[in-house]
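User: For my dataset I need records formatted as: sequence, then structure tokens, nothing else. Please produce one.
Assistant:
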Amino acid sequence: MHIPATLDQARSTLAVMLGIAATEGLPDTIDHETIAAATRYVFHLEPQFGLAGLTPLSPYRQAELTADPALATQAVSFAALMAFVGGTLDPAKLSAVVKLADQLGVRDDFVNDLARLALGDMNDAKAHMIHANLESVTGRAWATAEMGPWLQPYDAQPDPALATRFHALARLPADTFGHAFAMFYQANGYAYPGEATALNFEFAVPHDSTHVLAGYDTSPRGELLTSTLTATMHRSHAMSGHVLPVILSWHLGIPLNDVAGAATGAFEPEEFFYAWARGEDTKADLFGPEWNFWSAAIQPITAVREAVGLTG
């Protein structure tokens, strides 16, 4: 869901982004590129207009953001991104974002993650992000001991009937979504839900459906963009459960746990905010209860993309 903003509100958000970038000196190229991309894809303004004449927030403009909780949260979310785009953990920038969140009255849990990271409490921050991701997907809180068995339930209890149903997707016509989904699994060597080592249907299928429909591969770049899109499509723990984990994993090279992968440099401003905007413009939530994978599987993939809102 897109968050409407007036011109003044848009420029206030861009101003706080620039302010975080300038916490310890002059903003560099990636800072300017990030602000320009947000200007274009989120606020639908010409990039050069977004950067021109930005000044620190006046009390009036700060109050205008504070009056709209959704806009305030978006402003802090984009400010948080500015703390990471350089590819390092910068305690001064992270602390500046936490201060901004306090000023704007934003209490979302991702702000606590930023505070933990600023203080060097990496383990607690990462643990919370993992919990937030599962809570976002399932709609309930999790104890740590529950998470592993839920994520890979078929190791203990295989479901051959479910796996067979997935294998049958490859026999669908080549222009169907289900066939494309099967080819995606075959190309990546993934086990289907129901088979040992496979991830839970409830977790894997919406995420991988997003990969297929959005056209993002499983490279670090593709994983970062897929999770960015799901953050704004699903709107539950968007930052703590979707965006921050992939920024840490695929841009800063910080794995979330001992078995997770990691890489550096996967963030690209134009692609990130294009994915953010694509998620905002979706017409269906693939993580929502209304989404029926099996019904979609037998339809042409072009029709499914149209129905979901991922044609661009």
